[in-house]
Amino acid sequence: ESTLDPRLFVKKAKPSGQAGFRTEKSFETLNLNPRLLANILAKGYQTLTTIQEQSIQPLLEGRDIMAISKTGSGKTAAFLIPIIEHALKDSRNYTALVVTPTRELALQIEEEFKSLVVGLQLYSATFIGGTNINSDYKQLERKLQVVVGTPGRLLDLSDRKLLKLNQVTTLVLDEFDRMLDMGFVNDVKKLINLIGKRDQTLLFSATLEPNQMQLISALLNNPIEVKVENSG
Ligand code: ADP
Ligand code: MG
């Protein structure tokens, strides 16, 4: 039964720095794989953003999450860092599927992933509309720890039995509000049914509409609920 009441999980944060919301917490405190930490620092990230501070630790512990935080607050690293830690511990069985509403976002997420896994031998692919589907086939020949894509292309590859959605262990729904705005609700529901049982589900959104709560709470298992609000 859902206990998700948007009024109950408001945490205030002051915006500072270009990432919007910075905390004082350094990445060194997270006990990450040393190479991952080095890659984070090489990107120029010094302290966690508020959404990262509130999400990364529970995600490392395997919790589901519903995270609401405005664009530019650092949500991508908030989900990729725990994904990479989990993938490093079980690279043969681990598959995260990151579903995004647009091609541009999908490409940005994979780019961030690649910059974070330099030297770590984890593999990703992006499957988006508007590209020749034949070039997707080759990428699916190798074990991928992270698959990023838009709903239509992911379903297409699943229909063709190329992408095995039932092997997904972690599902990330990024920009969920935009996904619904763009009319992907049925595609997302189909994807979720094909994935079936999974270890972890992460939902990120810039906004939260009360009429989405029923759908959201059906997707998540006892999630932590984080909402970062701009108080500045
Ligand atoms: P969102 O998904 O919330 O819109 P992004 O993940 O795209 O935000 O991040 C926005 C920008 O902030 C990106 O340029 C990203 O590289 C940068 N960024 C993310 N986390 C940090 C951090 N901890 N410190 C500095 N910059 C960061
Ligand atoms: Mg984002």
Descriptive notes:
This protein is an alpha/beta fold. The chain has one domain: 3-Layer(aba) Sandwich (Rossmann fold). The protein contains nine helices and ten strands. It has an eight-stranded parallel β-sheet. Helix 5 (134-139) links the parallel strand 6 and strand 7. Helix 2 packs parallel to helix 3 and helix 6 packs across helix 8. The radius of gyration is 17 Å and the shape is globular. The termini are far apart. The site of magnesium ion has 4 residues, from helix 3.
Describe the structure concisely for a colleague.
The protein has 232 residues and is an alpha/beta fold.
The global form is globular
Quaternary: single chain
CATH class category name:
Alpha Beta
What is the averaged pLDDT score?
91
Order of helices and strands: EEHEHEHEHEHEHEHHEHE
Uncertain runs with pLDDT below 50, 5 residues or more?
A: 5-19
Kindly report the spatial arrangement of strands forming the biggest sheet: 1-10-4-9-8-5-7-6
Roughly how many Å apart are the termini? 35 Å
CATH topology: Rossmann fold
CATH architecture: 3-Layer(aba) Sandwich
Q: Estimate the helix proportion, in percent.
A: 25-40%
* Beta fraction: 15-25%
When the domains are counted, the total is 1
What characterizes the major β-sheet? Answer: 8 strands, parallel
Structural class: alpha/beta
Please count the beta strands (DSSP E, at least 2 residues each). Answer: 10
How many separate helices?
Answer: 9
